[in-house]
Amino acid sequence: MALDFYEYPSCGTCRKAKKWLEEHNKDINSIHIVEETPNKETLKALYEKSGLELKKFFNTSGQKYRELQLKDQLPAMSEDEQLELLASNGMLIKRPITTDGKRVTVGFNEDTFKSVWK
Question: Which family does it belong to (predicted)?
Fold first, then answer.
């Protein structure tokens, strides 16, 4: 079964993660995170399966995140509001997001990929 791989193609981290998956013979269904931004329900499912805090889904180093001054606003926002915000702009989402429908990783860490996707 192919992994859903939410990426921004010009992102260096996404390219590294994709290369790692390809080197380990994983089938990938590439999804452009900006052109096909996951909706709120999809994001909620990914978040719940990931076991991570919702704030880990935000691209905190991104220009849009800084522009909107989300560092100060997120703590006061509800989970629902945060999911709405993520679904409104793919550039706010940390990438890549990789999932097989059961497990989810956010970003690229080789050790994490080895333990989850090998």
Answer: Belongs to the ArsC family.
Alpha-carbon span 113 to 105, nearest angstrom: 8
Q: Model-level pTM?
A: 0.96
Topology, domain 3-117: Glutaredoxin (3.40.30)
- d(CA 92, CA 37) in angstroms, rounded, equals 10
* pLDDT one digit per residue (tens) for the chain, 118 residues: 899 999 999 999 999 999 999 999 999 999 999 999 999 999 999 999 999 999 999 999 999 999 999 999 999 999 999 999 999 999 999 999 999 999 999 999 999 999 999 9
User: In terms of Cα–Cα distance, which of 81, 103, 107 is closest to 94?
Assistant: 107
Which of helix, strand or coil describes residue 102? coil
Is 6 within 8 Å of 96 (Cβ atoms)? yes
Q: Which helix (H) or strand (E) element contains residue 3? A: strand 3-7
3-state secondary structure of 37: coil
